[in-house]
Amino acid sequence: MRRKLSLMACFCFAILLSNCKTSQPLPIGDTSENALDWEGTYSGVLPCADCEGIAISISLDREGKYVKSSRYLGKSEEAFRQEGRFEWNSAGNTITLAGISDSPDRYLVGENQLFHLDQEGNRIRGALADKYVLKKVVDKAGHPLLNSKWVLKGMENYPHEDWSPGTIFVFLEEDSSRLHGFGGCNNFFGVYTLKAGDGLELGKIGRTQKFCQDEMQAENIFFESLEQVRNYQLMENVLELRDENGTLLLTFGRDV
């Protein structure tokens, strides 16, 4: 009798031990939540049916709080601010901003970017897909590209041996996200956006209206090249600006 009780006790203990082992959570591996440096601020301009676009800024912190700012371009300069908490889904790759009154605001979290999802939680596809991406904003304080005069040394799309860039330069202002410079004939101005990693975009380039017979062709190509810039490579005092495919467009030297 004692032997039967002993065997039964061992059997029950084995069952309990087995249940304890299977009840422990299984490892989930790397996810956006635990593997990416997602904390920070993301910005972009989403498509809008009755305005020029919706300028969005979303800040996320490690405590699960968000601050969202929305501005309807071409309609109002006032920014609509919302804040609250966000939650991760079970897969650890998507967040939902709580407290949004009209509809759930869901984003797929990628490396240095947020993908705005549709009402069903799916990625937006088609010709406008790239417009539904928010990029992580870079901290500009002390950035080596900024507040330096970059003098043009070479322009790949204008490889004339007898051409000299002369005094062409660009200057990126740290405190205003604006740029200015000289294109060989005209002064120019615009805005820039630094993105995580080596991302850089230059846009809204405007210039004075002087006409210089000998410099206009090179200057026009210079401005076209500026607007194609998507990435940069910095090697001490040499700056290379490249397009979205990594093709070299312009080479500058820091004026020291």
TrEMBL record:
What are the UniProt keywords, alphabetically? Signal
Position of the signal peptide: 1-23
PANTHER family hit by this protein: HEAT SHOCK PROTEIN HSLJ
Q: What is the protein name given in its UniProt record?
A: META domain-containing protein
Q: Which organism is it from?
A: Cyclobacterium lianum
Presence of the UniProt keyword Oxidoreductase in the record: no
Please state every residue range assigned to the domain named DUF306: 144-252
InterPro entries, sorted: Cu-R_lipoprotein_NlpE, DUF306_Meta_HslJ, HslJ-like_sf, Hsp_HslJ-like
Q: Which domain of life is it from?
A: Bacteria
Q: Is Methyltransferase there in the keyword field? A: no
